[in-house]
Amino acid sequence: MKKNNLLIFSLSIIFFGCATLKQNNTVKQVEINASIDLVDVNDDKVKVVIDPPKINNDEITFYIPQIVPGTYEYSNFGRFIENIKAFDYKGNELKLNQEDENTWSITEAKKLDKISYLTNDTFDGPDGKAIYPMGGTNYKKNETFLLNLHSMIGYFDGMKENSYRLNIRSPKNLEAFTSLSVISKSDTLDIFSAKRYFHIIDNPILYSEPNAVSFNLDDIKVGLAIYSPTGTHKAKDYQDAIEKMMIAQKKFLGDANNTASYDILLHLMGMEDLQYFGGMMGALEHHTSTTVVFVDQMQAEELTQSLVDVVSHEFFHTLTPLNIHSEEIHNFEYNTPLMSKHLWMYEGTTEYFANLFQINQGLIDEQNFYNRILEKLNYSKRYDDTMSFTEMSSKIVDEPYQTNYGNVYQKGALINMCLDIIIRENSGGERGILSVMQDLAKKYGKEKPFKDNLLIDEIISMTYPQVADFFKNHVEGKVPINYMEYLNKVGLTMGETEVPLPSILFKDNQNPFFEPQPDQDGKVRYVVTGLNDTIESMGVEIGDVFLGLDGKMLPEIKKENAEQINAVFTPSFMWDDKKEFTITIQRNMDKQTLIGITGKPNAKVSGVVEDPNAAEKAIILRTAWLKN
Ligand SMILES: [Zn+2]
Questions:
Q1: d(CA 348, ligand 1 centre) in Å
Q2: What is the enclosing helix (H) or strand (E) of 366?
Q3: What residues contact 428, with CB distance under 8 A and at least 6 apart?
Q4: What pLDDT, on a 0 to 100 scale, did the predictor assign at position 279?
Q5: Which of 78, 400, 562, 581 sits at a 20 to 30 Å CA gap from 341?
Q6: 234 C-alpha to center of ligand 1: Å?
């Protein structure tokens, strides 16, 4: 059994999108027309036609992105394209050569009128698993279409800065929700415009039966649309939570926030469908919107907290990379990418703020915040602690760096916590990592990238020598961080604390209550090796063989059955505290089914707690860190 799979629901996979508007001083170029047909959908494929302006070169290359901002891995979206054809102005087919998975060339380009092809969605089919659902496409005829357009619409060499006109023929019962500029909308045809190719991929579209709300928070217009396969979740039920969260975020950011509108596209999936992606869910960030994928079976309370944690992270990306980013991101290359060194900031600062603002604005209490730090300390141990963070970032698409990507949300956030504490300590509590980011956003902003190699020196010049040492040793260098050194400065220490379990399958905050062990014949079984209050009160005993959960029996315990094993376990992560469920066990030769109610099982663990003997100075610094 892989523990990662079991824990997957508490590890949200979050991305960001980062390329920004590029200054375009050239004369206005002619529009590219792109058409998508969501009505005549056959065999789960959607037809796309791309009609460029007249081409004056002998040869032209057409690309579908290999990689998109924020995903840090090669997606090769070209593999979802088939039956691609080029036509001249008389409707005759032109020769088209496939150069690689994502690239096609047309030799008689001067005659080219248009290109047409069929697109497969990423939510099923053999290759779809490789694409995280929040960056993918889902076609369900007459029911929903999740369109991440980087998987559907390509660009011609030298024409990325051309504007696009996007025509979408859509079923009458479905409504489009997107932050893309609308030219016109009707029951059956929606027309959008994009200033350049980047805007095509930065503005996903969700088609679903009407289920959206829109509201104004001072100077920002917020929208939320939901596709719920069972119709259980209504957008209006989540408006209050989103409002409260975004007001708190705006207060926290102060004048560093200048976002005019923000749209949340929430695509819920059935549990079975999510299994296809190995349980992956989370959000993909865009500049004025975000695509979020969660499970439809989540109960309202849990979905609300997950939305707050994930959407707040995505919204903080409007600070970095949107307003603070390097040239590599400003001029993002979709088919030959160069990576920036600063994932510690793009993802780390963002994730740190997504937690800090909640304690800062009183959405959570102190111990909840400390437990989040503990969770990051624990999860970060799964990654290589001696890997230089800046080196990992600049080589993230290759191994062994790619495997360590998840650490940007763990150690990346903790790096920012340490920097924050250092800056607070040296400024008498007045400044922190947030004020550094506010100053950087003022200096750079959307249209002005920084030089990748100079950012750290610039931050050092704005702060203190201790910040220089920290970057040199722990961000650029390979020295693991002694976190206690920083936690002690703010009067925190390690001590016994109670934390909630990720699900009733756990005996503490990290380990399940069972382990794989072979029997006399060498057959592997799950044997109960620890208990939590809930299963103990149900009568489960150490040494029992764990056979099934809530009526679903485990298959033979082996690697090939990982998906089926997960299918038995994952529902338990969605249960609230009133769920009645059963555990089936074998004790000696007896098979027994035990009944119980989830409740709120906690575990006593060694965690981050306030030090009762902390010095006055440390307590003052802690208050400045959490509340200033
Ligand atoms: Zn992110």
A1: 8
A2: helix 366-380
A3: none
A4: 73
A5: 78
A6: 26
Residue pointed to by tokens 């062994």: 400
Average pLDDT of every residue of the chain: 90
Q: If pLDDT is split at 50, 70 and 90, which confidence band does 604 have?
A: confident
Q: Which of 265, 324, 267 is nearest to 123 (CA)?
A: 267
Q: Which CATH architecture has domain 502-600?
A: Roll (2.30)
Here the tokens at position 372 are: 């989040």
Residue 570 has what pLDDT? 82
Fold exhibited by the domain 32-208:
Immunoglobulin-like (2.60.40)
462 vs 465: CA distance, rounded Å: 10
Q: For residue 282, how far is its CA from the centre of ligand 1 (angstroms)?
A: 10
DSSP reduced 3-state for 423: helix
Count of beta carbons in the 10 Å neighbourhood of residue 523: 11
Structural tokens at position 334: 């979709």
CB contact at 8 A, 56 and 82: no
* Per-residue burial over 308-341, b = 16 or more CB atoms within 10 Å of its CB, e = otherwise: bbbbbbbbbbbbbbbbbbbebbbebebbebebbb
Q: Which of 362, 492, 361, 477 is nearest to 417 (CA)?
A: 492
Q: What is the mean pLDDT of residues 541-552?
A: 94
| The token pair that represents 554 in the structure block | 């485990």
pLDDT of residue 10: 32
User: What 3 state SS string does 187-229 have?
Assistant: CCEEEEEECCHHHHHHCCEEEECCCEEEEEECCEEEEEEEECC
Distance 263 CA to ligand 1 centre (A): 16
Compute, in angstroms, the gap from residue 321 CA to the centroid of ligand 1: 9
* Dist. CA 302–CA 573, nearest whole Å: 10
How many angstroms is it from 392 CA to the middle of ligand 1? Answer: 16
* Ligand 1 centroid, distance to 524 Cα (angstroms): 39
Q: CA 176: distance to chain centroid? A: 22
Asked if 383 contacts 464 with a C-beta cutoff of 8 angstroms, the reply is: no
Rg, the chain, Cα only = 26
